[in-house]
Amino acid sequence: MKEKVVSKPEAIAHIRDGMSIMVGGFGLVGAPLELIDELFRQGQRDLTVISNNVGEPGKGLSRLLEAGRIRKAIGSYFTSNPVVGEHALAGKLEVELMPQGTFTEAIRAGGAGIGGFYTRASAGTQLGVGKETKVIGGQTYVLEYALTADVALIRAHKADRLGNLVYRKTARNFNPVMATAAKLVIAEVDEIVEVGEMDPEVIVTPHLYVDFIVQRGGVA
Amino acid sequence: MDIKHRIAARAAQELRDGDVVNLGIGIPTLVADHLPPGVDVYLHTENGLLGVGPAPEEWAVDPDLVNASKRPVTQTPGCSYFASDQSFAMIRGGHVDVAILGALQVDAQGRVANWSVPGETVLGVGGAMDLLVGARRVIVTMSHITRDGQPKIVQNCSLPLTADRPVDLVITDLAVFRVMETGLVLTELMPGATLEQVRRRTAAQFEVQLA
After folding, report:
1. What is the gyration radius of the CA atoms in chain B, in angstroms?
2. Chain-chain contact of B70 with A29 (C-beta, under 8 angstroms)
3. Given a cut of 50, is residue A220 above it in pLDDT?
4. Which of A39, A63, B67, B150 suits a disulfide with B146, CB 3.0-4.6 Å?
């Protein structure tokens, strides 16, 4: 059996300058904060971050942003971190804003081999400007393309050694969908159990999506 | 009852037993406090929970359990958790019966502007656009005028629209408007409000069909 349980430094060392990275979490809830801290420590830069938010001032992804290491942010709600606005206005950060449902569906499509999709969201608004549209059943839909990434950093509650994952409450959010849409998926978890100990009926992310598992707090 | 609670209480009267309801930030969150007896609704939050319960006591706060405003909430019996992609599939797919949300402006056709704050860099939209196009019924709750006295119900929104789809009902501290094919129809005055007052503080054309 391939060993998926690795240390934080080993897992994060797979990230190179210039890569695109999906990062789970709704605000800081369900964000893989220890993996982000390790990424901060290792120093990779010129990153494209695909995440609903970019942390909060001094916390999570915002630390990378404040250090000038994020080139572009794709997400839906950067309002809660004023640093994003400051960097965008200063021309230090490229920002792509999407309706939250479009954002998560674009990632779903990316992981499911779908090139794009039509949604009603943003039709007739500023965020729909310049996008292809199609009238379906008398209503205008906007064409959106799939999102994929080089690496996904996700947070789960429990993993088995194969990489099957379950989540906890609203910390689930974008994590399962991001686990499907990146070439390399690293999961930060509270607890690692042996294969066969998890009820197959409750597994949310089957192991084929997961490349590495990192134990929170521990050294693995 | 203060104005915000009066608006929320009026909105609560629109809900039916069994409705799945998504509540936005501000006045909408108060709606849950005013449900009529015998009306059980299931609160949906777009970050992945159907069956949101009230805020917990401080000692019972679970950092993994928040609503879309990132405030601590509780879970109710029969609730379920799901990921964001499924949560928005529920919204866009018409499985959420009612969305109640705030607005910065509403135009004469009942279209809403509520995602972009004037004079600020526009860096957040969240789930507003998906909810406005996807919820089966959309109710706006808001103050009738801005803090500096400007009408919020206007002929054309000066702020960017959130969706091309009109909402169904607009409830303010002064009035209730139904949105029809023809545009806004004033159907109720809130207690203490007069038609004259509503006319003076509304900058859009509307029909009057008071019961």
Report:
1. 17
2. yes
3. no
4. B150
What kind and span of H or E run contains A88?
helix A82-89
Yes or no: say if B48 and A52 are a contact pair by the CB < 8 Å rule.
no
Terminal-to-terminal C-alpha distance of chain B: 24
Q: For residue B91, give the 3-state DSSP assignment.
A: helix
| Domains present along chain B, CATH in parentheses | 3-208 (3.40.1080.10)
Residue with tokens 């004259």: B196
Interior angle at CA B181, CA B200 and CA B176, nearest 5: 40
Retrieve residue B179's tokens.
């949105």
Model pTM score:
0.96
Encoding tokens for residue A9? 């430094």
Question: Could you tell me where the beta strands, DSSP code E, fall in chain B?
Answer: 20-23, 42-45, 49-53, 74-81, 98-101, 105-106, 112-113, 137-141, 169-171, 175-180, 183-189, 207-208
Q: Is B207 a catalytic residue?
A: no
- Cα(B6)–Cα(B189) distance, integer angstroms: 12
- Phi and psi angles of residue A29, each rounded to the nearest 5 degrees, phi first: -75, 120
pLDDT tens per residue across span B150-209: 999 999 999 999 999 999 999 999 999 999 999 999 999 999 999 999 999 999 999 999
A177:B83 CB<8 A: yes
pLDDT single digits (tens) A124-176: 999 999 999 999 999 999 999 999 999 999 999 999 999 999 999 999 999 99
User: Looking at chain A, which residue has its C-alpha nearest residue B88?
Assistant: A101
Best mutation target among A103, A169, A175 (most B Cβ atoms within 10 Å) is A169
